[in-house]
Design a protein that fits this description.
By secondary structure, the protein is mainly β. The relative contact order is 0.11. Among the domains are: 73 residues, Phage tail protein beta-alpha-beta fold, CATH 3.55.50; 73 residues, Carboxypeptidase-like, regulatory domain (Immunoglobulin-like), CATH 2.60.40.1120; 57 residues, no CATH class. 11% of the residues lie in helices and 47% in strands. The longest helix has 26 residues.
Amino acid sequence: MKFYTHCKRGANNHALPKFLLVMKLIMFFLTVAILQVSAKGYSQKITIKQINAPLDKVLNEIRDQSGYDFFYDLKTIQKANPITINVKDASLDEVLKACFNNQPLIYKVEDKAVMIKERAPSLLPEVKEVLNIDITGKVTDTTGAPLPGATIRVKGSSQIAASDNSGLFSLKNVPENSILQISFVGFVTKEIKVTSQSNLTIKLLEQSSSLNDVVVVGYGKESKKFVTGSIVTVQGSTINDLPVSNVSNALAGRAAGLVVEAPSGLPGVGSSISVRGVTSYTGQDPLYVIDDVPRSKQEFDLISPTDIQSISVLKDGAAAIYGVRGGSGVILITTKHGGAHSAPILNFSMSGGASDPTKVPKRLTPYQDALYRNDYYMNQGLPANDPSYYSPDELNYFKTETYNPDEFKEISKTPYTTQANLSVTGGSDAAKYYISTGYYNETGLFNNLQAQRYNILSNVDVRISKDLSASINFQGTVKPNTTPWWYDGVGTTTLSDLTRTALNYTPLGPSYINGLPVGNLYHLLTSEIINKGGYEKENQTNINGFLKLNYTPSYFKGFGIDASYNYNKEFDLTKIRYTPYTMYLFNTTGTNGHIVGDQVVGSELATQNNYDYYEEDYGQNMIYVFNAGMHYNRSIKDNDFGLSVFYEQSETYGDTFSAQGQDLLSSTIDQLFVANSNPDLRSLTGGGTESGRESVFGRLNYKYKDKYIFEAILRADASSAFAPQNKWGYFPSLSAGWILSDEQFIKNFMPHVDNLKLRGSYGILGYDNVPLSQWYSYYSIGGNAVFDTPVNTISPSVYPNPNIKWQKVATTDIGIDASFYKGLISGTLDLYYKNTSDLLVPNPTTVPTTFGATLADVNFGQVDAKGLEVTLRHDNRIGNVKYFVGLNFSYGTNKVIKYPEQAGIPDYERRTGRPVDFITGYVSNGVIANAQELAAYKNVTYNGRHFELGDIGFKDVNGDGVINSLDQVDLSNKSYDPRINYGIPLGASYKGFDINVLLQGVGDREVMISDRSQWQEQNVLSFWSDYWSPSNPQGKFPKIGGLNDTQDPASSFWLRNGSYLRFKSLEFGYSLPANVDKNLGIRSCRFYVVGTNLFMIHDSVGYYDAEYQTNLTGYGAFQYPIMRTVTFGLNIGF
């Protein structure tokens, strides 16, 4: 839901403390209540009576009664011994222990899932037990290398030990008939019975690729082994410690097909995200889903990275389960939940660090700047005695004067970041919980520039009865932002403009004299704007409540019913204040008056008008989502069936309000009543929106012998964005998979293959992010004077098009998943093709201005996109060193197939047959350096004049002797959007030390330098020092000219390779040994340092950060810079 009016939120001196107090109270009482539930617990009542039954049959009965899902390989489960069991009203834990006693299998309970694997064979023979034993031993891997920090626990007791750096451990007075549990991160946990043997050597098996891992697939979960769609997952552990204000800023380079670009380094600003890049010239935003509920990009960015368990990206037909909103891909966040059979665990983390710009463009010195201006005046034909020139005495002054004002440096300070998080998690058979609260603070380069975030999250899962369970989720976020606010004379207020103003400030004079701002050189002074000019205080608040009920009747095996309700409210309040400030004029000296003296001769008010100004904007959205459905699973011999059907309804209501006033009565009170009551100095506007969706959808799964997999999805969506006759859309998807590695011929001829799966999918998805006013009449209220008498008027804004219908995205994907040598090497390969049709495009029909309204869009456009994605990973251990190396790579192209081109437009403006964001301009022949090169242009004119030495020469494409728009062409058949995106993750650990590195880059991308126009009254970038002049005929850049000369138009002269490779992040950590933790009375302790955006390994642009999303109208070097950040942190568990 988007507001149609500019709606932000601002400081409210009472709302924030009150909200934080409420959050603290909620967390306190909820924590106490849940801990009580956890402490008490109660058994999960399961009753089973079976004699010599297969294990899978017993597990199906447990699943029906408990609601827990079981994940296992069919061939693995067939190795189990028959089960004889007779229990009544037993707990899940008791039943599982009985089933797996003396079995060659082990199990692990996570969330509401039970993963079953083959038990590692014990290396120790059983001998006669003794009463109490003192045990010593050594823990190693299968090669004999010691494993320091392994945990050795006496099962069912508080006795625990940790292996030292040599892998050695000891335990005293171990009770007879005890079981030792030996665990180490990345290895299979082992259990052995205590015997009379007192000196043990215990070898642990390293975990193979986790094919039994559960993957979130949208309205459900699936074992990774059986996934048939193109889904990539980013584990929360890889981003939990990163110092970012928005989740999107942490995802660049972490998943194939996920394209993340940072618009700037401004505090609190998130990155743009697209799935598989640009595939349309309309909407590109994917759908964001948080814990099964569709949410906005704003809410996605507000989640604390510490609370994230995993992020899954649906890239192909698998997104059809989200129908109309899945056309641009789906990003699913799963937040952390508590675990069963876990005592309360308290975790605290904190970090702090500092930042600096990755790159600030260098500029000319005062002397270079003065020479630059003299050449400009000469090229403009000014006579030698014109006072605009800098005279020899003034040039000498600027050559020898020590001051060199750098306005950007003067207003900049060192930004810092701080964050802290506190969480408690635990659970029993009765309830599981995860509760956390967090704080993030980031300051900017300038005063009055700050972004903060306060978070609270509570996930509670409760088993109400044997058949009924509930999940309760609450999220709350407050995000206060403060920025300087200003008018630049034409109403522009962005921070990029403010940065540009600082970088453009001329060096030919001081910023201040005797503490007074100098107004001789430039009418704006950024330090005055920041400290005195005004502010924008924005408060963004989001509250989300979610309740889900699951009923799994014990009398109907495999059947379950789900129902959920979600309430979301987001509201923004913004307060803007602008105060004029005074600039002082000083006397001047020097032959032509270019040297600023120290005597005040006047002053002027720096303002857009003569009044100070106050504005207040408010907007809110309320979203209600109801979902209900059923699911049924059944196994018949080698056949597994699954069916789920859902109904979903959502409603969204939005309101906006904005009021402005001038000539304020108070300089400290930020309320509307202080504005002048004159109606001419006040304004008021507001609006409201509402929309809704209704959906019915389902998924059918089938597996045969756990080798042949089939999935079908169908969703029907109705949206208020379309007229009644077109409001329903239907979105099917089919996918299949074949696990070749389970075929005997693969096992015979390729014994080193752990997993090999072929998969394919086809689906039709939709997109409905269109203005509601496209299909019904929409009027604007205004006013005009008739015979000097004011009258209210009403006029149509858009002439409706009731035939508007869904945009459709047909996507085909073929993929391979593979792993080899027991997980040593793994990877995926995907080939995809997307055809987006019925795109909404502007109506090519022209209407006279007297018509009084614009025409609604029409469904006409079509775009094709295709590409490939590769993921590779190598995991290994050499002695005590465990390491991994990875690569994710994607390459994608797009082409406009159909677009309503207007009649008579030149060829270079036509979209059909070209990339979505293609680049146009003149073909450059380079700088005209000498008379011989100039002779080639003697019969060619540009802007009504002949070319001159030092100009950029343009190719006369149509040969008519005139360079104009008809000579512009498609310069490269490429676009500003990169065709190649890649990331290279690296990591290693050794005896408590760990290091993780991420390299991230893009390729096959073109950028047009946007800072090619330079004016004589401003400072210029240092690269312009090598410009053509009679004394520098081999200058790399054209002669100094004005806006209408050849340096300004887009041309191949300014086209650059926009590829780069960045050292995106480096994290180095150290975890205290387990025995030290025990002595300190804690569970764990880790210290770490993280650096982000550390440096560019390769950068083709050079003078500004190549990651900027820049185009012909971008600021390029004058953006608020991307920041390099280094933070130090601590994670501690109790």
